[in-house]
Prior knowledge:
It is a single chain. By secondary structure, this protein is an alpha+beta fold. The protein contains 10 helices and 16 strands. Strands 2, 3, 4, 6, 9, 11, 14 and 15 form an 8-stranded mixed β-sheet that branches. Strands 1-10-16-12-13 form a 5-stranded antiparallel β-sheet, with no helix packed on it. Strands 5-8-7 form a 3-stranded antiparallel β-sheet, with no helix packed on it. β7 (266-270) and β8 (276-280) form a beta hairpin. α1 runs antiparallel to α6. The protein is elongated and about 90 Å long. 39% of the residues are buried. The model is unreliable at 1-19, 21-29 and 152-156 (pLDDT under 50).
Amino acid sequence: MAIGRIQPRTGLLKTDHQALGATPGPGTQGFSEAVGEVARGLSLAVGALLASVPGPCRTSAELAATWGIDVNLAWKLLKIAGTAPGTDALSALRRVPGRGAVRIVLRAADRLGVDAGVMAQAQEAFEAYARLMEQHAGTRSALDSLLMHAGAGTPGGDLAARRSAFRANAATVGVQAEVQVTCYLFWPEQTKEGEGTSAAGVLRGFGGFSRLRGDVAWIIGRGRRSDMQGQSYGQPTPVPIDPDTAEQFGGVPLVRALTAGELPKVSRSHLPDGTAIDRLLSGPVGRGSALTFFMAETIRPGLADRNDPDNQVLRLAASAHTPSEMLVMDVLFHRALPPMGKMLGGLASELGGVSVAFTPDAQRVMLHGAGPLEEHGMGVQTLHIQGLPRYPQLLGELCARLGVRAEDFAAYRLKVAYPPIPCALLLERTMNPG
């Protein structure tokens, strides 16, 4: 059974939840071995080069003064030699100077009387780096990308590339947002017959949404409720939390009390398969006309029967198709729900039009960039978001509308800066703790 909206989607399905951990694919091992060998060779050779010259060389400023070279070039040499704080062998390869700078270093070494054998070792190490680039990448920028994804540095080391992509995508499509938010809430309920069941609330919205083109009509929500076979499940459609406002706006589940300023102009249409398409209509451009708005709905039942053998894992996704500076997914579980198992989070690509919530594990393309799963304890007080100062208060107001107390929920968060659209944050949790 899969329950949810395409943006966002809620899924309940059978899966190997360990697949959220990124694993090296075939063909990466040869590159990893080659880059490790080059990194070790460069570190040893540059270290020997620097050790051959007497004088203070502990900092880039000292090394620059002793060698008579640029301070930035000196910093790169210290990184390669592994003597700079926080040095990582693979990430240091991304600091290798260009051919012209290497010639400057070798001329300085010759001027300072460095042994010819030590200089030859350094020259060969730099040439090995050049061969690595030619064989495996072709260009410096392509090699930097390979190094980043081979483990050079920490997850999120591609932040500069994702920031550039955000700017380019925003300029191309004509919209951007400071933050996109999806929040899921799950709490227990009882049927009229007194049987235990559950409900889910889904809050989604944007902070600082602005148009760069006045003629853009942008999709802000798309989806239908179905099981994993694509068949209708449970309620035909989620129920708006603010039904009066939703009726005024053609079914789009805007919440007036959770929206700053005027409500945006929107429309809803349906595809033949029942998929609802919510659009933000064209309007004024620029930051002065930026919008902050939220939509919220309830889904019943919220969770599958914990004894259902075909639905032993809860999968939640927050899809991003809008250029945003930050994508945030919060998940709140009520303390009175039956015990559930461990959680795993990750970031996956949705290129090719595939919704990752319904994609087999082996076919998902996992991405770098998502931060670790954050545990925020009970309540919503610490769920702050830059650019949305009232967000914790909004969650409290949402809980009050749902008839539950915010302090009774355990809160978890996944986030990624400058999400590489289209993508989705994923959170999976086993239905049974065993």
